[in-house]
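Known limitations

Files may contain more than one protein. Parsers should not assume a single record per file. Below, a two-record file is shown to illustrate correct handling: read the sequence, read the C-alpha cell line, then continue until end of file.
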Amino acid sequence: MNSFPRLRDHTTPLSTVWLLNDIAESRGKQELFTRQSPQVLKALRDTAVIQSTESSNRIEGVTVAPARLYPLVLGQAKPRDRSEQEVQDYRRALKAIHSDYAALAIAPDTLQHLHALCQSASGDAGQYKRIDNDIVELLPGQAPMVRFRCVKAAETPAAVEELCRHYQYALAQDSVPPLIAIAALVLDFLCIHPFRDGNGRVSRLLTLLALYQHSYEVGRYISLERLIEESRESYYECLRRSSHRWHDSKHELTPWFNFLFAIIRRAYVELEKRAAQVEVPRGAKSAQVLTAIRAQPGEFRLSDLERACPGVGREWIRTLLAKLKKSGDVACRGRGPGARWRFVGNKGSNA
C-alpha cells in the first residue's frame, strides 16, 4: 500500500541499521537457545502466551482478573463474560499462528481469519468494516479529536488486496529486507484499519505471523505484546508521526520502523538474559563447550564458543581451554580475547 512505494526512495538511517544489525546477530543465537535450554524455553513459552494474551487485550481496554488468566489461557476454563471470551479468543489466534504459521499466507483471507479468531464474540467477526471509522483521541476535559482518517469502508477490500500484493512483491522482486517489509506491512494495515474493532490485536498477530515466517521466533518466548504495552506512549506517538500524510504517500517511515525494531531487539536481549540464567551443571558445561569446540570448522576464537554456549561464562570457557592446551588437545595462536584456537584431537585428555 502507501508505505511500499516510499521504500524505493527511503534512505535507511544509521539508527535503523544498528537496530537491524543487533537483531540479525541475536537471531543467529536463537537456534542455540532452543537446542541447549529446552526446559527454560518451555516455561518462557507458557509465560509469553499468558503475557501476550493479557497485554494485547489490555492495550485495547479489555481486562480480566489475574486469577482467571492462567485457567483461561492455558487451562480449560469457560469464559464468564465478554472480556474473558476475548482473552480466550486471542489465545486461540496465537495457537493458530504458533502451530500453522508456515501455512498462513499474508493474504486478505488470512487477515479476516485472524480477526474471526480473536473477535468471535462480535457480530462482524472476520468481516471488513461496513461504515467509515476514524482514530479519535480522547483527552480529559476536551472535545474528541480525529487523529487519523482511515481508509473508507467502500475502499477497504481493495486496499487490503493491494497491501498484500505490495508486501509479497517487495520481498520477491524489490529485494526489500524482511524486517523492513514487515514494518511497512503492519504500518499500512493500521492506517487502513480494515475492521470495525480489533485492528490493534490483529496487527500484533500479523506482526508475529510475518516474523515467524522469516525465522524471527523470539515472540514465542518473550511477549512482544507486553513490551509494546510497556512502551504504550511511544507506540502511539510513533504511529502518529509515521501516519501523518500517509494518504499522500509522503509520510515518514523511520519513527514506526525504529519503534518496532527496538521492541524486537529488546525481546532478543531479554531472551538471552533469561537463557543465561539457567544453571548448567559443571559436567554439562564441560560437555557443552567440548561439543562446540569439536564443531568448529577450523580456527576459532573465545567469542565463537561464547555464542555457541549460552549460559556458560567466559571464565569457565577460558579455564577449560587452558586445560585442553596443557593436555595438547587444542593449540593456540596469539594472546588475549583475539587469540585463535584450533582443535588438535585427543592427546592427553578425554576431549
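...continuing to the second record:
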Amino acid sequence: MEPVHIVAEKDSIAPIVLLPGDPLRAKYIAENFLEDAVLVNSVRNMLGYTGYYKGVRVTVMGSGMGIASVGIYAYELYHFYNVEKIIRIGSSGSLNPNAKILDVILSTGAYSESTFENTLLKCENSFIESSKELNKIILNTAKEMNITNLKYGPTYTSDVFDVYCDISDLINRCPIKDDLMCVEMEGFGLMHIAAYCNKQASMLATIVDSKYQPDVIVSPEDRETSLNTMITLALESIIK
C-alpha cells in the first residue's frame, strides 16, 4: 500500500517533523526559519517542506484540523516515511487560570472522549501520554533559551471548536479537569498514532484565548512573536 495524502519521494521527508495544523503556517516556517527549503508535498494543498535548521534536516507540514485529519498525516509520516519524532505546534484556549494568554503549553498528555482510540486500537484509553523523552528535551531547551512562559501539564482534545460550542459539560466530566492546561483539537490523535507506530510525539500549544482574561486583546504583532517563540523552541528541541 502506498500513502494517499502525502505524495513525496521517500527520502524527501526528514525523520524529524514539525506539524502545525495550518499548511500556510508550514509555509511561513519554511520561508522564515529553514534554509534551502523545498516543497515536498502539495496534495490537497496540505503543504509540506523539507529544509535545514542549523544544519539539521527538518520537515514541516500541515496536518489540518481535528483528530481525524492529524491522524491521517501522522500515520503516513510515521509509517510510510520513517519519521521518528513529531512535535505538533498550534494554538489553544486556556482551561486553567495559570495558563495565560500567549503562554506556551507543553502537553504531558491529552485527554478526550473521542472514539478515535477505540476505532484504531479497539480499546478505551481516554488519556494518552506524550513522549517523556521528547518532553524532557523541550523542557531543558526552554531553560537554555530562558523561556519563562512555558507551562507543563495535561491538555484536552475536543472534537468541536469550543468557541462555537460550549464543552463545559465534557470538561467537568474529565477526571483530571483541575489539572488541564488548555483545549485544542489534535493532540489526542497525534499521540495515539505515535504510540501505535512506536514513535515519539509531543505538543506545544500557544494560548490565544482565555475565559479568565476576557478583556485581553492580543495584537497581531504579539501573536506572531509568541508563535515564533513556540516555533523556535520546537525547532531547537527537535534537532537534539
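Parsers that stop after the first record will miss the second one. For reference, the second record is described as follows. The mean pLDDT is 95.
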